[in-house]
Every structure is written in C-alpha cells, then in structure tokens.
Design goal:
The protein is mainly alpha-helical. It has twelve helices and three strands. It folds into two domains: 3-124, no CATH class; 128-269, no CATH class. A three-stranded antiparallel β-sheet has the order 1-2-3, with helices on one face.
C-alpha cells in the first residue's frame, strides 16, 4: 500500500469514527445488536480466506469509487444531523465499498463482495422499523403459546402479550421472548453458513429463510416451557435469575443447531452440484 493510500484511508477512518462509536454504543445497550462486535471480525476472517484470489486479481483504480464515497459522506452527514445511527452505519459500509473500488478496482470489489456486504449486519435498523415488529412478534408468540397450552389441557388466559395462570400469577411475554433477538442474531449466522456451505442461490436462500421460523419456534418453545414451569414452581422462580437468562441462551443454541441440521438435511436429500466455497484456512 502506498503512503497516500494509507493517509487516505486514515482520514476516512477518522471521519467515520463517530459512526463506529455510535454503533458500538447500540451494540452494548441493545441485546439483539450485541453481535455487532463480531461482524467486523467475521468479515476480516472472510477476507483472509480470499487472499489467494486477491493476489491474482488486477489492480486498477476506479474513479467511480470516489462518487460512491462522496454520496456516502452526504448520507453520513444527514444521519449525523438527524441522529440516525442506521444512516451513519450504512454510509460507513458504502464508504468501505467505495474506497475498495477506488483504490483496487472492480475486480477486488467483486471478490470481496461477501465480506463487505456482511458488514450490513453490524448496522442497527431504525427503531421505528423494529418496534412495530417486536409488538407483533410478542402478540404472535403469546397467542401461539396459549393455543398450544390449551390444546394440551393447560388452563391459561391471554390478555395481549400477558399470560394469566390459574394461580393468579401472570407472565409477561417481554421483548426478549418475542423472538426478535434470535431472528436478528441468527440471520447473520445463516448468511455466513449459506455462503460458505452452499453453492447455488436457491439453496442459500432456503437456508437463510429457515432462520426466521427456527428462531420463532425456539422462542415459542421457551414461552411454553416457562408457563409449564411457572405452574409447577411459581412465576418468580422461572422469570428471574440465572434460570431465565440461561433459558434464552439454550433456545438460541438450539436454533443454531437446528439451522445446521437444515443445511445437513438439504445436502443429504438434494446433493449439491459442484463444490461449495472453501472456508478461510481450510
């Protein structure tokens, strides 16, 4: 890398440092965005696995990259003025793509399309988009759980996302139990697995699409088990302390294993043609 290129990238880094810090604050404060810290690490790992291809790729500066950078900076400025962490984050990802196009050309950008695109998962979605989804998911999980429990002969009543037990106790299906955490954190894993283990677009789409129902089923199971346990040992015992926290981790782990199972089953039932993308270091 030439000196002027290093200076150019350093300047861009300083410009976007507030955006990165703003996203890091969201990653720390919001559970379903905590995976944001890992996204750049995974992207860098994926880049490392593409070094052999990059070594043989032509280098040619493309001035269109400057246009992408300028447009991204305008979006960044708007995001900063309006306090939109999402806009600032998207501008950062676009600038990474623009800088790559400008300094190394379209061949490098095509090769690194996956790691650059994967950075989107570190950008928090606008709160106005996520909040209505959470409310609908809470109601869906509550209704589905009550339906399953009643069909099994468990007497429960529902009021919105609150489940009332015969004992008079109530369980509130909170944001964490809505499935939003599992969905948002499982999707990056699904995309990663789809890219590195599947070759064709339809198979990749199937694997990614499976993440949403698996996340929902996992949280539905969590709510049902919580209600059954609350009837046996009390609501307070199952909604506070380490038991409640570890149940969330267990549900997410089960969803991850189920996602791996979907990929494995798909490869057994419909053997892929050709080879999948090699994992970095493999």
């Amino acid at each position: 890398m030439r000196l002027w290129e290093a200076v150019f990238l350093a300047i861009l880094g300083l410009v976007y440092l507030p955006a990165l810090l703003g996203m890091a604050q969201v990653w720390r404060e919001v559970d379903y965005y905590s995976h944001g810290f890992l996204v750049p690490v995974v992207a860098a790992w994926a880049v490392a696995g593409l070094r052999a291809r990059l070594a043989g790729a032509p280098r040619a500066r493309d001035r269109r990259g400057l246009l992408v950078i300028v447009a991204a900076i305008l979006v960044y400025a708007w995001g900063t003025l309006t306090g939109s962490v999402s806009a600032a984050g998207l501008a950062l990802v676009a600038t990474v793509a623009g800088a790559l196009l400008y300094l190394r050309g379209s061949a490098w950008l095509r090769i690194l399309a996956f790691p650059v695109g994967f950075l989107i998962f570190m950008v928090p979605a606008p709160g106005g988009w996520v909040t209505p989804v959470i409310v609908k998911l809470q109601l869906f999980v509550s209704t589905a759980a009550v339906g399953l429990l009643r069909s099994a002969g468990v007497a429960v009543q529902q009021a919105g996302n609150v489940i009332h037990l015969p004992s008079g106790e109530s369980l509130f299906v909170a944001e964490a139990c809505s499935g939003i955490t599992s969905i948002i954190t499982l999707l990056p894993l699904a995309v990663f697995l789809a890219y590195f283990t599947e070759r064709t677009l339809p198979r990749r789409l199937v694997l990614v699409a499976a993440a949403i129902p698996l996340a929902m089923l996992g949280n539905l199971l969590r709510v049902v088990v919580t209600v059954v346990a609350a009837r046996a040992i009390g609501a307070a015992a199952v909604t506070t302390g380490p038991v409640h926290e570890w149940s969330g981790i267990a549900v997410y782990a089960l969803a991850c294993l189920a996602l791996l199972g979907v990929g494995r089953s798909m490869r057994r039932l419909v053997p892929p043609e050709g080879k999948s993308v090699a994992l970095p270091g493999a």
